[in-house]
Specification:
Blueprint: E1 6-7, E2 10-11, H1 12-26, H2 31-50, H3 57-91, H4 94-101, H5 106-122, H6 125-139, H7 146-161, H8 168-175, H9 180-184, H10 186-208, H11 223-246, H12 256-267, H13 279-297, H14 309-318, H15 324-334, H16 339-348, H17 358-366, H18 373-379, H19 381-398
Antiparallel strand pairs: 1-2
Length: about 400
Protein backbone atom coordinates (compact mmCIF):
# COMPACT_ATOMS: atom_id res chain seq x y z
CA UNK A 1 0.00 0.00 0.00
CA UNK A 2 1.31 3.46 -1.01
CA UNK A 3 1.25 6.24 1.58
CA UNK A 4 -1.97 8.26 1.29
CA UNK A 5 -2.00 11.64 -0.44
CA UNK A 6 -2.20 14.38 2.17
CA UNK A 7 -3.93 17.77 1.82
CA UNK A 8 -3.28 20.26 4.64
CA UNK A 9 -2.06 17.36 6.76
CA UNK A 10 -5.20 15.27 6.18
CA UNK A 11 -5.18 12.10 4.04
CA UNK A 12 -7.51 12.42 1.03
CA UNK A 13 -9.21 9.19 2.16
CA UNK A 14 -10.48 10.97 5.26
CA UNK A 15 -11.55 14.02 3.28
CA UNK A 16 -13.66 11.83 0.97
CA UNK A 17 -15.15 10.01 3.95
CA UNK A 18 -15.91 13.30 5.73
CA UNK A 19 -17.61 14.63 2.59
CA UNK A 20 -19.70 11.45 2.47
CA UNK A 21 -20.81 11.91 6.08
CA UNK A 22 -21.53 15.60 5.41
CA UNK A 23 -23.65 14.58 2.43
CA UNK A 24 -25.56 12.12 4.60
CA UNK A 25 -26.17 14.87 7.15
CA UNK A 26 -27.34 17.42 4.57
CA UNK A 27 -29.30 15.19 2.20
CA UNK A 28 -31.05 12.87 4.64
CA UNK A 29 -33.71 11.99 2.06
CA UNK A 30 -30.99 10.64 -0.25
CA UNK A 31 -28.77 8.88 2.28
CA UNK A 32 -28.40 5.65 0.29
CA UNK A 33 -27.36 7.44 -2.89
CA UNK A 34 -24.91 9.64 -0.99
CA UNK A 35 -23.35 6.67 0.84
CA UNK A 36 -22.94 4.61 -2.34
CA UNK A 37 -21.49 7.59 -4.22
CA UNK A 38 -19.02 8.24 -1.41
CA UNK A 39 -17.98 4.59 -1.27
CA UNK A 40 -17.48 4.53 -5.06
CA UNK A 41 -15.34 7.68 -4.88
CA UNK A 42 -13.15 6.24 -2.10
CA UNK A 43 -12.68 2.94 -3.95
CA UNK A 44 -11.84 4.75 -7.20
CA UNK A 45 -9.30 6.95 -5.42
CA UNK A 46 -7.59 3.98 -3.79
CA UNK A 47 -7.62 1.95 -7.02
CA UNK A 48 -5.94 4.79 -8.91
CA UNK A 49 -3.61 6.33 -6.34
CA UNK A 50 -2.83 4.44 -3.12
CA UNK A 51 -3.99 0.84 -3.19
CA UNK A 52 -5.40 -1.03 -0.19
CA UNK A 53 -4.08 -2.56 3.03
CA UNK A 54 -3.47 -5.91 1.34
CA UNK A 55 -2.29 -4.81 -2.10
CA UNK A 56 -2.98 -2.54 -5.05
CA UNK A 57 -5.53 -2.57 -7.82
CA UNK A 58 -8.51 -4.87 -8.10
CA UNK A 59 -6.58 -7.68 -6.42
CA UNK A 60 -5.94 -5.47 -3.37
CA UNK A 61 -9.64 -4.59 -3.20
CA UNK A 62 -10.50 -8.28 -3.44
CA UNK A 63 -8.16 -9.16 -0.56
CA UNK A 64 -9.64 -6.36 1.53
CA UNK A 65 -13.19 -7.54 0.95
CA UNK A 66 -12.14 -11.11 1.75
CA UNK A 67 -11.17 -9.83 5.21
CA UNK A 68 -14.37 -7.82 5.65
CA UNK A 69 -17.06 -9.99 4.11
CA UNK A 70 -17.97 -11.93 7.28
CA UNK A 71 -18.59 -8.72 9.24
CA UNK A 72 -20.62 -7.25 6.38
CA UNK A 73 -22.59 -10.47 5.88
CA UNK A 74 -23.42 -10.70 9.59
CA UNK A 75 -24.66 -7.11 9.64
CA UNK A 76 -26.75 -7.68 6.51
CA UNK A 77 -28.36 -10.86 7.81
CA UNK A 78 -28.98 -9.46 11.29
CA UNK A 79 -30.49 -6.17 10.15
CA UNK A 80 -32.76 -7.90 7.63
CA UNK A 81 -33.65 -10.73 10.01
CA UNK A 82 -34.37 -8.55 13.04
CA UNK A 83 -36.70 -6.39 10.96
CA UNK A 84 -38.81 -9.52 10.45
CA UNK A 85 -38.44 -10.36 14.15
CA UNK A 86 -39.84 -6.95 15.12
CA UNK A 87 -42.89 -7.55 12.90
CA UNK A 88 -43.41 -11.01 14.44
CA UNK A 89 -43.25 -9.34 17.86
CA UNK A 90 -45.70 -6.62 16.82
CA UNK A 91 -48.14 -9.14 15.32
CA UNK A 92 -47.95 -11.28 18.46
CA UNK A 93 -50.08 -8.50 20.04
CA UNK A 94 -47.81 -8.32 23.10
CA UNK A 95 -47.16 -4.60 22.46
CA UNK A 96 -50.92 -4.01 22.73
CA UNK A 97 -50.74 -5.24 26.33
CA UNK A 98 -47.78 -3.03 27.27
CA UNK A 99 -49.84 0.08 28.21
CA UNK A 100 -51.35 -1.92 31.06
CA UNK A 101 -47.86 -2.72 32.38
CA UNK A 102 -46.21 0.71 32.10
CA UNK A 103 -46.84 3.72 34.37
CA UNK A 104 -49.20 6.32 32.89
CA UNK A 105 -46.93 9.36 32.79
CA UNK A 106 -43.32 10.09 31.75
CA UNK A 107 -42.16 7.32 34.10
CA UNK A 108 -43.67 4.84 31.62
CA UNK A 109 -41.13 6.03 29.05
CA UNK A 110 -38.31 5.55 31.55
CA UNK A 111 -39.47 2.01 32.36
CA UNK A 112 -39.60 1.13 28.65
CA UNK A 113 -36.03 2.40 28.17
CA UNK A 114 -34.93 0.32 31.16
CA UNK A 115 -36.50 -2.76 29.56
CA UNK A 116 -34.54 -2.09 26.35
CA UNK A 117 -31.36 -1.71 28.44
CA UNK A 118 -31.91 -5.06 30.16
CA UNK A 119 -32.82 -6.86 26.92
CA UNK A 120 -29.67 -5.59 25.25
CA UNK A 121 -27.46 -6.96 28.01
CA UNK A 122 -28.02 -10.49 26.74
CA UNK A 123 -29.51 -9.99 23.27
CA UNK A 124 -28.12 -8.25 20.22
CA UNK A 125 -28.62 -4.49 20.59
CA UNK A 126 -30.34 -4.34 17.18
CA UNK A 127 -33.07 -6.67 18.42
CA UNK A 128 -33.44 -4.75 21.68
CA UNK A 129 -33.78 -1.43 19.84
CA UNK A 130 -36.37 -2.80 17.40
CA UNK A 131 -38.42 -4.36 20.20
CA UNK A 132 -38.31 -1.02 22.03
CA UNK A 133 -39.33 0.83 18.89
CA UNK A 134 -42.20 -1.58 18.29
CA UNK A 135 -43.56 -1.17 21.84
CA UNK A 136 -43.12 2.63 21.63
CA UNK A 137 -45.19 2.75 18.45
CA UNK A 138 -48.08 1.16 20.35
CA UNK A 139 -47.93 2.91 23.71
CA UNK A 140 -47.43 6.38 22.17
CA UNK A 141 -50.13 5.89 19.50
CA UNK A 142 -47.63 5.83 16.64
CA UNK A 143 -46.18 9.28 17.46
CA UNK A 144 -42.65 8.77 18.77
CA UNK A 145 -40.43 11.81 19.24
CA UNK A 146 -36.98 11.75 17.61
CA UNK A 147 -35.43 12.51 20.99
CA UNK A 148 -37.06 9.40 22.39
CA UNK A 149 -35.94 7.33 19.40
CA UNK A 150 -32.37 8.47 20.15
CA UNK A 151 -32.94 7.38 23.76
CA UNK A 152 -34.10 3.92 22.64
CA UNK A 153 -30.92 3.50 20.60
CA UNK A 154 -28.83 4.81 23.51
CA UNK A 155 -30.51 2.39 25.92
CA UNK A 156 -29.83 -0.56 23.62
CA UNK A 157 -26.18 0.43 23.18
CA UNK A 158 -25.71 1.15 26.90
CA UNK A 159 -27.19 -2.22 27.83
CA UNK A 160 -24.76 -4.06 25.58
CA UNK A 161 -21.68 -2.05 26.62
CA UNK A 162 -20.85 -4.14 29.67
CA UNK A 163 -21.75 -7.58 28.32
CA UNK A 164 -19.56 -9.71 26.07
CA UNK A 165 -22.71 -11.09 24.42
CA UNK A 166 -24.54 -7.76 24.22
CA UNK A 167 -22.56 -5.99 21.49
CA UNK A 168 -20.31 -6.92 18.57
CA UNK A 169 -17.46 -4.80 19.95
CA UNK A 170 -17.50 -6.43 23.40
CA UNK A 171 -17.70 -9.86 21.75
CA UNK A 172 -14.58 -8.93 19.76
CA UNK A 173 -12.80 -8.10 23.02
CA UNK A 174 -13.84 -11.46 24.47
CA UNK A 175 -12.52 -13.28 21.41
CA UNK A 176 -9.23 -11.37 21.74
CA UNK A 177 -8.78 -12.64 25.30
CA UNK A 178 -10.16 -9.73 27.33
CA UNK A 179 -11.87 -11.01 30.48
CA UNK A 180 -15.66 -10.50 30.65
CA UNK A 181 -15.06 -9.05 34.14
CA UNK A 182 -12.87 -6.35 32.60
CA UNK A 183 -15.75 -5.36 30.31
CA UNK A 184 -18.57 -5.52 32.87
CA UNK A 185 -17.24 -2.41 34.67
CA UNK A 186 -18.58 -0.42 31.69
CA UNK A 187 -21.99 -0.74 33.36
CA UNK A 188 -20.95 1.88 35.92
CA UNK A 189 -20.79 4.50 33.16
CA UNK A 190 -23.69 2.98 31.21
CA UNK A 191 -26.11 3.02 34.17
CA UNK A 192 -25.20 6.60 35.06
CA UNK A 193 -25.66 7.63 31.42
CA UNK A 194 -29.01 5.83 31.37
CA UNK A 195 -30.19 7.80 34.39
CA UNK A 196 -29.09 11.05 32.76
CA UNK A 197 -30.76 10.70 29.33
CA UNK A 198 -33.82 8.56 30.16
CA UNK A 199 -35.69 11.18 32.22
CA UNK A 200 -35.46 14.21 29.87
CA UNK A 201 -36.11 12.02 26.81
CA UNK A 202 -39.21 10.51 28.45
CA UNK A 203 -40.54 13.91 29.55
CA UNK A 204 -39.96 15.15 25.98
CA UNK A 205 -41.95 12.19 24.64
CA UNK A 206 -44.75 12.63 27.17
CA UNK A 207 -45.21 16.24 26.08
CA UNK A 208 -45.15 15.23 22.40
CA UNK A 209 -47.54 12.28 22.63
CA UNK A 210 -48.58 11.01 26.09
CA UNK A 211 -48.41 7.32 26.84
CA UNK A 212 -51.65 5.46 26.15
CA UNK A 213 -53.35 4.87 29.48
CA UNK A 214 -55.75 2.06 28.60
CA UNK A 215 -54.77 -1.18 26.83
CA UNK A 216 -56.59 -2.18 23.67
CA UNK A 217 -59.72 -4.24 24.29
CA UNK A 218 -60.08 -7.94 23.47
CA UNK A 219 -56.39 -8.53 22.84
CA UNK A 220 -55.61 -12.10 21.81
CA UNK A 221 -51.91 -12.93 22.16
CA UNK A 222 -50.60 -15.15 19.32
CA UNK A 223 -48.49 -17.77 21.14
CA UNK A 224 -46.99 -19.04 17.88
CA UNK A 225 -45.43 -15.67 17.08
CA UNK A 226 -44.25 -15.30 20.68
CA UNK A 227 -42.51 -18.67 20.32
CA UNK A 228 -40.92 -17.63 17.00
CA UNK A 229 -39.59 -14.38 18.51
CA UNK A 230 -38.14 -16.29 21.48
CA UNK A 231 -36.65 -18.95 19.18
CA UNK A 232 -34.90 -16.34 17.01
CA UNK A 233 -33.41 -14.56 20.03
CA UNK A 234 -32.33 -17.80 21.70
CA UNK A 235 -30.74 -19.01 18.46
CA UNK A 236 -28.73 -15.78 18.13
CA UNK A 237 -27.63 -15.89 21.77
CA UNK A 238 -26.72 -19.58 21.65
CA UNK A 239 -24.82 -19.21 18.38
CA UNK A 240 -22.86 -16.28 19.81
CA UNK A 241 -21.88 -18.07 23.02
CA UNK A 242 -21.16 -21.50 21.48
CA UNK A 243 -19.11 -20.08 18.63
CA UNK A 244 -17.04 -17.86 20.95
CA UNK A 245 -16.41 -20.58 23.52
CA UNK A 246 -16.03 -23.67 21.33
CA UNK A 247 -15.28 -22.54 17.77
CA UNK A 248 -13.88 -18.99 17.79
CA UNK A 249 -12.05 -19.50 14.48
CA UNK A 250 -15.42 -20.13 12.83
CA UNK A 251 -16.44 -16.52 13.45
CA UNK A 252 -13.75 -15.32 11.03
CA UNK A 253 -14.97 -17.43 8.12
CA UNK A 254 -18.76 -17.78 8.52
CA UNK A 255 -21.45 -15.21 9.52
CA UNK A 256 -22.61 -17.46 12.36
CA UNK A 257 -25.08 -15.10 14.05
CA UNK A 258 -26.83 -14.11 10.85
CA UNK A 259 -27.16 -17.69 9.69
CA UNK A 260 -28.62 -18.75 13.05
CA UNK A 261 -31.26 -16.01 12.90
CA UNK A 262 -32.30 -16.79 9.34
CA UNK A 263 -32.37 -20.53 9.96
CA UNK A 264 -35.13 -20.02 12.54
CA UNK A 265 -36.98 -17.48 10.37
CA UNK A 266 -37.10 -19.87 7.41
CA UNK A 267 -37.85 -22.98 9.47
CA UNK A 268 -40.86 -21.30 11.09
CA UNK A 269 -42.10 -19.47 7.97
CA UNK A 270 -44.69 -22.16 7.16
CA UNK A 271 -46.11 -21.91 10.69
CA UNK A 272 -46.43 -18.12 10.73
CA UNK A 273 -45.40 -16.24 7.60
CA UNK A 274 -42.98 -13.34 8.19
CA UNK A 275 -44.07 -9.90 7.00
CA UNK A 276 -41.97 -9.89 3.84
CA UNK A 277 -43.36 -6.46 2.90
CA UNK A 278 -40.85 -4.76 5.22
CA UNK A 279 -37.91 -6.17 3.26
CA UNK A 280 -37.57 -3.56 0.46
CA UNK A 281 -37.30 -0.57 2.81
CA UNK A 282 -35.13 -2.52 5.27
CA UNK A 283 -32.86 -3.54 2.40
CA UNK A 284 -32.24 0.12 1.51
CA UNK A 285 -31.32 1.00 5.09
CA UNK A 286 -29.10 -2.06 5.39
CA UNK A 287 -27.19 -1.30 2.18
CA UNK A 288 -26.71 2.25 3.44
CA UNK A 289 -25.08 1.03 6.65
CA UNK A 290 -22.93 -1.52 4.81
CA UNK A 291 -21.73 1.22 2.45
CA UNK A 292 -20.62 3.35 5.42
CA UNK A 293 -19.02 0.40 7.21
CA UNK A 294 -17.13 -0.58 4.06
CA UNK A 295 -15.98 3.01 3.50
CA UNK A 296 -14.81 3.23 7.12
CA UNK A 297 -12.86 -0.01 6.76
CA UNK A 298 -10.94 1.52 3.83
CA UNK A 299 -9.60 4.43 5.89
CA UNK A 300 -5.84 4.52 6.65
CA UNK A 301 -6.25 4.28 10.42
CA UNK A 302 -3.47 1.81 11.06
CA UNK A 303 -2.37 3.84 14.06
CA UNK A 304 -4.43 5.34 16.86
CA UNK A 305 -3.15 7.96 19.31
CA UNK A 306 -1.46 6.60 22.44
CA UNK A 307 -3.90 4.73 24.66
CA UNK A 308 -5.17 6.95 27.49
CA UNK A 309 -8.46 7.97 29.00
CA UNK A 310 -8.66 11.21 26.90
CA UNK A 311 -8.08 9.12 23.76
CA UNK A 312 -10.81 6.69 24.84
CA UNK A 313 -13.22 9.57 25.54
CA UNK A 314 -12.51 10.88 22.05
CA UNK A 315 -13.10 7.48 20.46
CA UNK A 316 -16.68 7.63 21.74
CA UNK A 317 -17.31 10.75 19.66
CA UNK A 318 -15.47 9.26 16.69
CA UNK A 319 -17.63 6.13 16.85
CA UNK A 320 -20.70 8.31 16.21
CA UNK A 321 -19.52 8.70 12.60
CA UNK A 322 -16.89 5.98 12.18
CA UNK A 323 -17.87 2.34 12.48
CA UNK A 324 -16.92 1.03 15.93
CA UNK A 325 -15.92 -2.43 14.70
CA UNK A 326 -12.65 -1.33 12.98
CA UNK A 327 -12.03 1.10 15.85
CA UNK A 328 -12.25 -1.76 18.33
CA UNK A 329 -10.02 -3.96 16.18
CA UNK A 330 -7.34 -1.26 16.07
CA UNK A 331 -7.55 -0.68 19.84
CA UNK A 332 -7.19 -4.42 20.50
CA UNK A 333 -4.15 -4.57 18.25
CA UNK A 334 -2.61 -1.54 19.96
CA UNK A 335 -3.43 -2.57 23.55
CA UNK A 336 -2.82 -0.42 26.60
CA UNK A 337 -6.50 0.43 27.17
CA UNK A 338 -8.69 -0.02 30.19
CA UNK A 339 -11.18 -2.25 28.39
CA UNK A 340 -14.24 -1.25 30.39
CA UNK A 341 -13.80 2.36 29.27
CA UNK A 342 -13.26 1.34 25.66
CA UNK A 343 -16.35 -0.90 25.71
CA UNK A 344 -18.46 1.99 27.00
CA UNK A 345 -16.98 4.56 24.60
CA UNK A 346 -17.26 2.65 21.34
CA UNK A 347 -20.50 0.95 22.37
CA UNK A 348 -22.46 3.93 23.68
CA UNK A 349 -20.77 6.69 21.66
CA UNK A 350 -22.42 5.63 18.41
CA UNK A 351 -25.81 6.60 19.85
CA UNK A 352 -25.07 10.30 19.33
CA UNK A 353 -25.90 10.14 15.58
CA UNK A 354 -28.54 7.94 13.97
CA UNK A 355 -26.10 6.10 11.68
CA UNK A 356 -23.43 5.79 14.38
CA UNK A 357 -24.56 2.29 15.32
CA UNK A 358 -26.36 -0.58 13.63
CA UNK A 359 -29.14 -0.26 16.23
CA UNK A 360 -29.68 3.35 15.13
CA UNK A 361 -29.85 2.40 11.46
CA UNK A 362 -32.27 -0.45 12.19
CA UNK A 363 -34.58 1.80 14.22
CA UNK A 364 -34.39 4.53 11.57
CA UNK A 365 -35.60 1.99 9.02
CA UNK A 366 -38.69 1.62 11.22
CA UNK A 367 -38.98 5.42 11.71
CA UNK A 368 -37.65 7.12 8.52
CA UNK A 369 -38.21 10.58 10.02
CA UNK A 370 -35.22 9.90 12.29
CA UNK A 371 -32.80 9.98 9.34
CA UNK A 372 -31.72 13.55 10.00
CA UNK A 373 -28.46 14.30 11.76
CA UNK A 374 -29.58 17.82 12.68
CA UNK A 375 -32.86 16.74 14.26
CA UNK A 376 -31.23 13.73 15.97
CA UNK A 377 -28.55 15.91 17.58
CA UNK A 378 -30.94 18.76 18.42
CA UNK A 379 -33.57 16.57 20.07
CA UNK A 380 -31.27 13.79 21.27
CA UNK A 381 -28.86 16.11 23.08
CA UNK A 382 -29.35 14.29 26.44
CA UNK A 383 -27.52 11.29 24.94
CA UNK A 384 -24.31 13.26 24.28
CA UNK A 385 -24.48 14.88 27.73
CA UNK A 386 -25.07 11.48 29.32
CA UNK A 387 -22.07 9.98 27.50
CA UNK A 388 -19.67 12.55 28.96
CA UNK A 389 -21.15 12.43 32.48
CA UNK A 390 -21.12 8.61 32.54
CA UNK A 391 -17.49 8.53 31.42
CA UNK A 392 -16.26 10.93 34.09
CA UNK A 393 -18.28 9.29 36.87
CA UNK A 394 -16.64 5.99 35.96
CA UNK A 395 -13.23 7.68 35.93
CA UNK A 396 -13.86 9.19 39.37
CA UNK A 397 -15.09 5.87 40.83
CA UNK A 398 -12.61 3.42 39.31
CA UNK A 399 -9.66 5.46 38.01
CA UNK A 400 -7.79 4.47 34.88
CA UNK A 401 -6.17 1.01 35.02
CA UNK A 402 -4.95 0.08 31.54
CA UNK A 403 -4.03 -3.36 30.35
CA UNK A 404 -0.47 -3.95 29.23
CA UNK A 405 0.11 -3.12 25.54
CA UNK A 406 0.19 -6.18 23.27
Amino acid sequence: MIDPIVVFGIPVDFILFALTLLGVALFHHKTLQVALTGLAAIIAYKLIFTGFKHGTGVAGLGHHMAHEWVTLANLFLLLMGFALLSRHFEESRIPDEMPALLPDDWKGGVVLLCLVFVLSSFLDNIAAALIGGTVARHVFRGKVHIGYLAAIVAASNAGGAGSVVGDTTTTMMWIAGVSPLAVVEAYIAAIVAMLVFAVPASIQQQRYSPIQKDPSKSVMIDPARVFIVAAILIAALAANIIANVKFPALLDIIPVLGIAVWAVILLTAAWRAPDWKVMPETFKGTIFLLALVTAASLMPVEKLPAASWPTTLGLGFVSAVFDNIPLTALALKQGGYDWGYLAYAVGFGGSMIWFGSSAGVALSNMYPEAKSVGRWVAHGWPVAVAYVIGFFVMLAVLGWHPDRPH
